[in-house]
Amino acid sequence: MEFKGDGKDKFFIVTRGKARKGFSRGCIGRVEAVMHKGELMGLLYGGGSSGNPKSGDIVKREDTYPLTRHQAQLLLFVSPSSKRLELLCNPQLFSAICVLSQDDLVVVKHKKGHQPGLVRNLMLIGKKENQGDLLMLGFEVEFVQDSDQTVSPKKPAPLPLFSAADIIQVVPAHSVGIGPRWKDSYSEGLNRKAVSRINSMPNMGSRERQVRGINHLDQNVTQTPTQSPSHHPFEVGSIVEVTSNTGITVYGVIRWMGVLSENKNDWAGIELDYEVNNCTDGTYGGQQYFTCKEGRALFVPLTKCSPDGRFLCPPSEKETLKATDIPPVIPLEETDENVPPIPESEALSLLVGKMKGIQGHYNSCYLDATLFSLFSSSMTLDSVCHKPAGTEKSISRSLKKDIVNRLRRQGFVPAESVMNFRKQLGCDTFVTEEKDPEEFITILLQRVLCMKSLLKLRSNNNTSQDAYTFQIILDKEQVTQTPTVQQLLDISLLSCGLKFEEIPSCLMVHMPRFGKKYKMFPHIIPSTEFDITDLLYNSPRECFLCGRLAEYECPQCLQDRKLQPGRIKQYCTTCKTQVHTHPSRQSHCPRALAVPAEVPADAPVPRHKMQLFAVLCIHTSHYVSFVKYGPGPRSWLFFDSMADRCGDDQSGYNIPEIRACPEVGDFLSQSEEELARADPSQAGEPVRRLLSDSYMYLYQSASMALYR
């Protein structure tokens, strides 16, 4: 990490280290001298009305991140200091803010909402009294008004001033056509003078532009007849832009695609990046097609959608975007601290959005989805990060510091950190080739970290088996066409003559699908709570009929249509005799259970249950995941490490994305009877994807869950 510039033009921000006299996290300083031990002697800048440097201190170079003068001035205007680090954790946004030009369209936080506006001036805040003073920088932003409004003859009011942290989205000036009509209307405002303005701010206004007015979005967007609706490059999850009839360009993600009742053409339901007038919460014509925040759902013909221009590299550009051009992520504090999972109250603000989660790179989706599912909101496998010594120490430390801690503290893990971790797995194929989650889990836990198995199974002949994941094995005819995970696991274990010797802390269940194409069932209903009581070896169980202590189990009764097919059947001695007097059951062979002698026959049997906390899914060859981030029934997230891409395959980089999916929780909150009758094809896209593409279900015991 090098500091560019000469002498007094070397600036930095402190990114780690406990608060102390002088420098603390988020402070901005100027390098005065570089010490021989790799330490920096620096002067500290305060916020305030003046940028006079205060008496500084010595800070370790690795605890800092270098800044240009321009970056330092922008961040100095941001307060509190913790927001400066939050802004640096979004490198794409901060990089765009640093090169803002006049007439660029931005979206800023204003009052209780978000407001689009045009950057008019870059403002120097404060008075330079000494040569070493560093003045703060802010942006004068002119809010976008309705196109039919007339300009008041009165002198315009001063434009509001915003800091870099107030900007949530940047749209380059050349992608939004602000033509002569706009410039004529506001020419008086542009000619105003201000002593503190920087007149050298780049002006993009000389480019030839299409005349547009900027207004609130109009839902009545007309379809362009020059494009065929049956040939489009989009799918659910595509990042697109839409320009309305009134001229404003907005950006969002396609959440739904299909045909609306009154129109035979293909339409798209788009969740916008911010709230816009006349938009909904995913409702159109009184019907809910998907769920999002109020004011963010826009429905348009697919022919009106274009790929998001912010993530495209124009073919005319001479310089090709390189992955190395991505602004580096600020370093984490070197500490042995065990960062807890992200609390439910903070998950949405920290995780939801683009460039969130774990960034995919070169066939890493299997690993990205697995790590995000295991560590973002659960601590059930945190012990793998605390492996003590030997050859395992390096990789467990890398997993903890570079992936788990970074994900939980910053909400983003760059591809470089993941690649370094992949190289430590001891096999070159994990660096380059596609793998499956269960293969990665077994290699990591068994061969690399030498952990004890997560599952201990006991067969009918009393032999023990160890495993890290469990593969469902059964005949398709043994269950209904749309089974639940509980039914699949019950029947699979009973058919194989297996029981759990103890309640596992983490149970990863691999669904009956093989390869990229074959699925035994078109849809599988998730069991949000998995009852493991009847699958435990040598544990008290209650009679299926009377509720007393069970002494026998009958595998042949499993599919009896008169006895709730699909449910495990165990009986006390009396009920076993009565049930098997029926002619159709006289050939059954109930087997005796190992009943603890100290348990009274009429004692209530406690139920042991595990909670679903994540689901790994695959459609063709790409893994994604659904993660439950809190105890609330609607607390679900969807994660895709390669949701979009910036640049080409050789020199670009993947854009990971996380979005909230409360509609998944709404669907799963239904009763078993309602779920059994539900038509998955009529559900929203996230729910359909969960039901049809599920690959592995992850459960944790209640004692290991950490939801806040």
TrEMBL record:
* Cellular component aspect of the GO annotation: centrosome; microtubule; perinuclear region of cytoplasm; plasma membrane; spindle
- Mind telling me what this protein is named? Ubiquitin carboxyl-terminal hydrolase CYLD
Sorted UniProt keywords = Cell membrane, Cell projection, Cytoplasm, Hydrolase, Immunity, Innate immunity, Membrane, Metal-binding, Microtubule, Phosphoprotein, Protease, Thiol protease, Ubl conjugation, Ubl conjugation pathway, Wnt signaling pathway, Zinc
Give the matching Pfam families. Answer: CAP_GLY (PF01302), UCH (PF00443)
**According to the lineage, what is the superkingdom?**
Eukaryota
Please state the gene responsible for encoding this protein: LOC106582893
Ranges in a coiled coil: none
PANTHER family recorded: 40S RIBOSOMAL PROTEIN S3A
Q: Transcription: is it a keyword of this entry? A: no
User: What subcellular locations does the record give?
Assistant: Cell membrane; Cytoplasm, Cytoskeleton, Cilium basal body; Cytoplasm, Cytoskeleton, Microtubule organizing center, Centrosome; Cytoplasm, Cytoskeleton, Spindle
| EC number in record | 3.4.19.12
Q: Which PROSITE patterns match?
A: CAP_GLY_2, USP_1, USP_3
Please write the reaction equations for the catalytic activity of this protein: Thiol-dependent hydrolysis of ester, thioester, amide, peptide and isopeptide bonds formed by the C-terminal Gly of ubiquitin (a 76-residue protein attached to proteins as an intracellular targeting signal)
Q: Which GO terms describe its molecular function?
A: cysteine-type deubiquitinase activity; metal ion binding
Q: What's its membrane topology?
A: Peripheral membrane protein
